[in-house]
Design brief:
CATH class of one domain: Alpha Beta
Pfam families: Astacin
Helix content: 10-25%
Protein name: Metalloendopeptidase
CATH superfamily of one domain: Collagenase (Catalytic Domain)
Shape: globular
Cofactor: Zn(2+)
Keywords: Disulfide bond, Hydrolase, Metal-binding, Metalloprotease, Protease, Signal, Zinc, Zymogen
GO molecular function: metalloendopeptidase activity; zinc ion binding
Number of helices: 5
CATH architecture of one domain: 3-Layer(aba) Sandwich
Distance between the termini: 54 Å
Length: 269
Amino acid sequence: MAYLLSLSFFLLFLGLTQAHPIQLDEKDEIVFTEDPDDLVDITTRILETNNATTEMLMEGDIMVPRTRTAIRCSWSNKCLWERKKSENLVKVPYTLSSDFDSYSQGKIKYAMNTFHTKTCVRFVQRSNQRDYLSIESRSGCSSWVGKTGGKQLVSLKKRGCVNHGTIQHELLHALGFYHEQNRSDRDKYIRINWEYVERGEEPNFNKEDTNNLDIPYDYSSVMHYNRWSFSTVYRKETITPIPDATVPIGQSLEMSVIDVQRVNKLYRC
């Protein structure tokens, strides 16, 4: 009887772990990581959540200083997080607001852990470092691009932004990446249908002076917005892949293989 009871509990636990993958955090606490809301399109999630934000944003979720309308990173070392040659690691200090409940904190840490397992980037809790990410539940989903120095805000509103792909999206901005559709060479791979772009939203499609690292354009990047971004007419495409207009673009699950490759190449992992 005791054996059968133990077996029953084991099978129940196994079933739960298959339905909701778990991750042990630094304190060996079980964190459930799968959520049906994670499947919601990232573009929709970010843009709708940011409708009421008070932050000055470009491209939907990139923070910019209030004294200028665009940012430009020269891709010098000052824009990137420091790589420790002795450890071959890039350590990014962060603080996590107490406004997040334990479940939300677990999801954020789980998204960070993907970088730990696939790249040389390590998000580490801040002790006394001058430059660090301050991850807070503000009015939307947003981040700066690259290291800006000092306290650097990453906003992940509890209701709307604490989802696996969205968290990775904002962390990739903080590591130094723009949106894929704003790459300097994007005109070879997509067409912007300006006639369907909502008036006033045109700057969201500006090309950026990006370092493309000799890595192919990635339609499946977690940094790629969907076909209807900033559209003035429902289901009218503002972004069309070329030469094959049927190619899927954007996804909400997690970093693509090329996203990971891009991080590793930029930081010389």
